[in-house]
Amino acid sequence: MDQWKNSRVAPSNPSGAARKVHVQGSVTDTVLQLAVTNAKLSMHLAARSRQHDACTQSVAIVPKDHTLSIAMHKAGKEYDELRKTHIVDYGPHILVWKSVIQTIAAMHSTTDSAVSDADFAIISEHGAAITNPLMLVDSVLLPCCHSLCT
């Protein structure tokens, strides 16, 4: 013990063997756990994104012989003719949307209209507010089905 006084570092243990350090899990276990947690988070966020998309988008399936379907088909053909003679800055879905709004407005005046007065007021306000087709490019997502566009 007298030599401890002269030594700057005390021995680690009396036998002089190196002290064992216990490691909690290996690096691969930590990476695996991180990968599993990341996968769970990705699945959760994907589910939330799909749920959000489902809440914010509405889809209407209209029979082929309905007045709206006929108007949409006609608008698609008009777009094709317009594109042959002019440079068009928007897709066919914009003209299809315009025809839907105009057709609903025309159908509202008939007695068999399924559109309520409150809904018609909203549709009319929307139609009056749009002064340029480019105003609809970022908000109207109306895919054109092959049966309607061909």
Explain what this protein looks like in three dimensions.
This protein is mostly helical. It has a domain at about 65-150. It is built from 6 helices and no strands. The longest helix is centred in the first third of the chain and has 30 residues, at about 25-55. The N and C termini lie far apart (about 100 Å).
Alpha plus pi helix count: 6
> What would you call the shape?
elongated
Beta content = under 5%
Radius of gyration: 34 Å
Kindly state the percentage of residues in helix: 55-70%
In a nutshell, what does this entry contain?
The protein has 150 residues and is mostly helical. The chain has helices at 2-6, 27-56, 67-85, 92-108, 117-129, 146-149. It is elongated and about 100 Å long.
Write a concise keyword list for the protein shown above.
6 helices; 150 residues; 59% helix
SSE topology:
Layout: H1 2-6, H2 27-56, H3 67-85, H4 92-108, H5 117-129, H6 146-149
